[in-house]
Structure formats: C-alpha cells, structure tokens
Amino acid sequence: MTRIKKTRTSGQIGVRHKPAAEARQDRTRAPETKKKGSGLKSGSRHSPPAEQKNSQGSGKKDPRHGSKTPIPLVLTQAEQKLMDSKNLQPVAQLSKAKAPALSPEQELAQIENDATLAALLDRVDQGEILKGKEAKYFNAKTARHAELVELLGLDDEDEEEELDPLAKLEQTDWRKEILGED
Q1: CA torsion, points 70, 71, 77, 82, in degrees to nearest 10?
Q2: pLDDT tens digits for 101-156?
Q3: Interatomic CA distance for residues 148 and 108, integer angstroms
Q4: Cα separation of 112 and 141, whole Å?
Q5: 176 and 182 in contact (C-beta within 8 Å)?
Q6: Which of 101, 100, 108 is nearest to 148 (CA)?
Q7: Residue 162 has pLDDT above 80, yes or no
Q8: What is the 3-state secondary structure (H, E, C) of the chain?
Q9: Are 100 and 86 in contact (CB under 8 A)?
Q10: Most-buried pick from 51, 55, 82, 157 (CB within 10 A)?
Q11: 155 in the Ramachandran plot: left (φ > 0), alpha (ψ -120 to 50) or beta?
Q12: Widest CA span of the chain, in angstroms?
C-alpha cells in the first residue's frame, strides 16, 4: 500500500457520529411479542393438579377408562338354553411332547460324540471336582452310557483286560504250574 502524506487542509477525516440523544430517537424498537410456552411452569410436578370442572357436574370423574354399563351376573333364559345345548367337554386331549425315540446304538453314538461331555471328562481326569449343573449332566450321561453299554452287551472292561498283557500275567497262578500244587 502506498503512503498518503498528511496535509494541512481542514475538513472531516471520518464519518461524523450522532450524539447519543439523537441516536436513541432514531432507533426503532422491535414490537413486543408474547414468549412461546416451552412446557409447564417450574415446580409443576410438586404442586397439586388444578381442579377441572366436569361439564355434567356429577362429581369427580372416574379415572378408569372403559364402559360403565352394568353387567348382569345372572343368565337369562336364552343364554341358559345356549349353555345347556353346548357340549362343554374338551375335544382334544393334551399330552406332553416326547422326543423322537432313538435306537440304543444311535443314543450311544450320540453320547460318545457329545462335546460337552468330552470336555467334562477331561476336567474330571485332571482331578477337578464338578459342581452344580455340570455334575448333574456328567452323572446322568455317564449313567446312561453305562446302561446302554450293558444293554448292547459291549463290555469295555473285558476288552481292556485282553489288551493288557501284564494284567493277564498277574492273574495267572504260577504256583500251580511250577510247584505242581493243586
């Protein structure tokens, strides 16, 4: 920007401001309007509700909704005939739903493939003591497994004995063979 030198000429340098009294007279005020209500007055939930007058003037209005017509408690003759003519016995018999029956082989396979039971077996093998629902589940499944094995004639104990040669040697009575004792 270029510099403008000051001169000795007299005159107004800027815009003249009006005196405060003149400025007040020229200002126009905004028209006063009523404030919009933004809800209930403060403290309204603690004050008792305003009394509303009923147009009927029959006292306080019942705050409950619904019809106020009286209901007869005694059957009329027409209603009695309808009740007598109907058979009030239930048509359908209710029974508990049963799970589809599985064959013992299928049930045994299902128990042996049960992931939660396998996890519980691992925990018991590690020496952990089961409590609550886990113990009930473990006991029920192992008992059912034992029943199914016995029912199907599968003896896991016999197979283990046949597989273990040391146990077989321990069961043999060597005194009879060596000493000839009876």
Answers
A1: 150
A2: 888 888 889 999 999 999 999 999 998 888 889 999 999 999 999 998 988 887 75
A3: 6
A4: 10
A5: yes
A6: 108
A7: no
A8: CCCCCCCCCCCCCCCCCCCHHHHHHHCCCCCCCCCCCCCCCCCCCCCCCCCCCCCCCCCCCCCCCCCCCCCCCCCCHHHHHHHHHCCCCCCCCCCCCCCCCCCHHHHHHHHHCCHHHHHHHHHHHCCCCCCCHHHHHHHHHHHHHHHHHHHHCCCHHHHHHHHCHHHHHHHCCHHHHHHCCC
A9: no
A10: 82
A11: beta
A12: 154
pLDDT-derived band at 26, boundaries 50, 70, 90:
confident
CA distance 48 to 39: 17
The letter for the amino acid at 108 is L
Which position has the token pair 């401001």? Answer: 17
The HSE-up count of residue 138 (CA atoms within 13 Å, CB side) is 16
**What whole-number distance in Å separates Cα of residue 110 and Cα of residue 104?**
10
Higher pLDDT, 162 or 140: 140
Length of the chain: 182
